[in-house]
Amino acid sequence: MTVRITLVGAGPGAADLLTLRAVRAIEAAEVVLIDALVSDEVRSLIPPGARIIEVGKRGHKPSAGQDFINRTLVRYAQQGFNVVRLKGGDPSIFGRAAEERAALEAMGIEVAVVPGITSASAAAAQFRISLTERGTARRVLFATGHRAEGPETDWESAADPATTVCLYMAAHDFAAIAAALIAAGRRADTPAIAVCDVERPAARMLAATLATLAARLAADAFEGPVVILVGDVCRRAVSSPCAPHFREGERRVSLPGLL
Q1: Each residue of 2-18: pLDDT tens digit?
Q2: What is the architecture, at CATH level 2, of domain 3-117?
Q3: pLDDT category of residue 176 using cuts at 50, 70 and 90
Q4: Which residues have a catalytic role annotated?
């Protein structure tokens, strides 16, 4: 089969965090189904003649239905277009890659997946912590903060103090999540951070504890995408983001001889 659909991870925002394979896929696209969280910097790599279809999903807001997305991917692939499904972060981490792959393969359409940097990893790098640390954190747990029927409540697996918990789509429900984590045995004074707009010009962090972060989030009213990290490694986080060692005006994807 010929690959007609590529699920591409756009990472957290900065275009220079894309993989080379992602850049190649984007620049070869004829049709792009794009998430709301994909940055303008990454969008600028889409060829001018490509058709762009907005299918953004945002928590607690109206979103494109998954059935519509699947049908649209199938339709353009069957018409012979080179289609890219451009997703924020990594397609395989809360990106519904499995659902889209299954729908496409059921129609005989081959799918390729290009991984991206997930926001928890990017947040850790930008605010100078490590998700794992010898003697402190030997396990990382990625979890989504909500389900269709409400906040997740089974947090026993996250109660181990040697686990760094990375929460996606959790800001709205974090008070309930924090209470559940504490009830499961996680210390109330466990360090916790919330990072908004990871790897974007407006990136910022709130540092608190498991017991107090929900109140800080409510008072601050973050508007952009938020990832929450809980664990003893968070005590090392610094308030000012780590910047790349070049001027902002130089940040562009320039890959002569490689593409």
Answers
A1: 678 999 999 999 999 99
A2: 3-Layer(aba) Sandwich (3.40)
A3: very high
A4: 35, 57, 169
